[in-house]
Amino acid sequence: MVRELIIDDAPGYLRAAVVEDGKLSEIHGEKTGSAGETESVFCGRVQAIKPSLKAAFVDIGTELNAFLPLTDDMTLRCGDRVIVQGQAKQATETKGLRVTTKINLAGKWLVLVPGQSGVHISKKVKDPALRAALMDIAQGICPAGCGLIVRTASEGVTQQLLVEEARSLHETWQEIKRKAACMTKPGLLHGRLPLHMRLIRDLRELSKVVISSQESYDALITAQQEQQIDKQTRIELFREDRQLIFDAYSIETQIDKALRRRVWLPCGGYLIFDFCEAMTVIDVNSGKMILGRDLEETALRVNLEAAEEIARQLRLRDVGGIVLVDFIDMRGEEQRQALLSRMKEALLSDRAQTKIEGITRLGLMEMTRKRTHTQLHKALRAGCSYCSGDGEVLSGEEVARRAVRQIRRMMLAGQRGPFVIRCSPSAAQALESMPSLAPDVQIYAQASPGRHAERFEIEQIGTGIPIPREARPLK
Ligand SMILES: [Zn+2]
C-alpha cells in the first residue's frame, strides 16, 4: 500500500490528509499557533472537588477549568498543584478539557510513562522472538521512576535510535518537572507537536509527504536530517501558484463525499450512513447490482466490497462508539466467515481501537470504535436552522390545510375576509386546488419564494382594499 500525507499549510489553519492508494483515508485540521490541548502538559491547580462526579476541576490557565476524573487512590485537595496532560476530547466538549495525571510522552518508537514502572510492548507486535528482543532492549534503557511502552513502529529500528529516543523523552520529562517547580501560576508546561508532525510521528510506512509552504518544508527537511522522519519518506514542496494543494490532489471533493449519507461501491451497490444518538447504523444495499441466479455469490461480493469501504469510511469520518452494519443477508456460514475476516483485515490500518463483536441473529454486524477526535460531520457542519435537525419539514399540502384551519378559527372570531395566505410556493400550489370554505368567503394564496416551508401568514383584507395581484383565489 502507498501511503501519503498531503498537508495544506494555509494561514491560520493547517489540514492534513492521509491518502492510501490514491484514496483519502483520514482528514485532520487544526488552528495553527494554538497551544493545543490534547497531549499538551499543564501545571494545574485544583479548584474544586466534586465527589458526586468523582472528579476535580483544575485550573490549567485556559478559559475553562479542566475536568480530572478521580480514582480511589488519589488524594487531592483544593489548592493542590498537579501536573496534568490533556486527553482526547470526549463528547463533553463544553465542559472543558479532560485531563489525566498519568502523563504519556510519545516519541516515534517509544512512549515514556513517568511515575509508572515496567515495560510494555505494543500488542500489534506479534512475533514472539521480536517481542523478546524489544523487551530486552527496553528494559535496558527504561529510565528509573518511569515506565516505557514500545510502539509498533519500532519493529526493525536500530537499538541506537531507541536509546536516543528514550534519553530525549526522559530529558523532556526532566525539563517539564523543572519548569513546574518554578511556575507560580497554572499554565502550559509542554506544548504538543503541530498536527502534521504528530501525524508523521504516528503514521507508519509513509512513502511521501507533500506540503504547501516553504517554511514548513524546510522544517521537515531538517527533521529528516535529524532522523525524526524516515529516510525512505520523500518530502516534496507543492507550490500553490496555479492551484491549491487540496484541489490538485482532489481532496476537497473527497471530503465533500465523506459528508454524504450515501456512499457508492465500485460494484454498483451502496452504503447508507445514519448517525443516531447512541450508535451509527450502516445499511448495505445491492443497488444497481442485479441479484441474479447466484444470489449468495452476488451478496458476498457486495458485502466484501462494503466491508472494505466501511473500514475506510469509519476512519475518514472518525466514527466512534457502537457501529451496526446491516449487510445483505447471507445464509452460508462459510460466507459469513469470509465477511468477518475481510472486515478484520480491513480494520488493521485503523489506528483507533476497533473491535468486532460478531454477527447477531438478525444478521447485523456489531462493532465498536474508539474515537480520538471530533466526528468529521460534527467538525465541519452545524445544525440545520431550517428543520432544526429533524431532516424533514411539513409538506406543502399539510401547511395548506393548517392555513385553512387557521382561517376557520378567524371566522369563528367573527372575521369574514377576504383572506390572503402568504406561504411558500409549494403550500400556495396546494392551496390553489383546495375548495374554499363557503361560497361567500374569499381566500387567496400568495406564494413568497423565500419563505420557510412551514410558516405562513394570514391577513384579513378590509373591504374595498385591492387583493394583491400575485394572489390566486382558492378553487
Ligand atoms: Zn434541515
Number of strands: 25
CATH class of the largest domain: Mainly Beta
What Rg, in angstroms, do the CA atoms define? 30 Å
Count of DSSP H/I helices: 11
**Low-pLDDT segments, ≥5 res:** none
| Main sheet attributes: strand count, strand direction, barrel closure | 6 strands, antiparallel
What name goes with the CATH superfamily of the largest domain? Answer: Nucleic acid-binding proteins
Shape: globular
Strand content: 25-35%
Sheet/helix structural class:
alpha+beta
What is the CATH architecture annotation of the largest domain? Beta Barrel
Mean pLDDT: 89
- Percent of residues in helical segments? 25-40%
Number of domains: 4
Describe the fold and architecture.
Helices cover 28% and strands 28% of the residues. By secondary structure, it is an alpha+beta fold. The model has no long low-confidence stretch (mean pLDDT 89). A hairpin with a 4-residue loop joins β4 (41-50) and β5 (55-59). The strands form five sheets. Strands 4, 5, 6, 7, 8 and 13 form a six-stranded antiparallel beta sheet that branches. A six-stranded mixed beta sheet has the order 16-17-18-19-21-20, covered by helices on one side. The chain has a five-stranded mixed beta sheet with strand order 3-2-1-14-15, with helices on both faces. The chain folds into four domains: 3-33 and 195-253, ATPase, nucleotide binding domain (Nucleotidyltransferase, domain 5), CATH 3.30.420.40; 41-190, OB fold (Dihydrolipoamide Acetyltransferase, E2P) (Beta Barrel); 261-380, no CATH class; 396-473, no CATH class. The site of zinc ion has 4 residues, from loops.
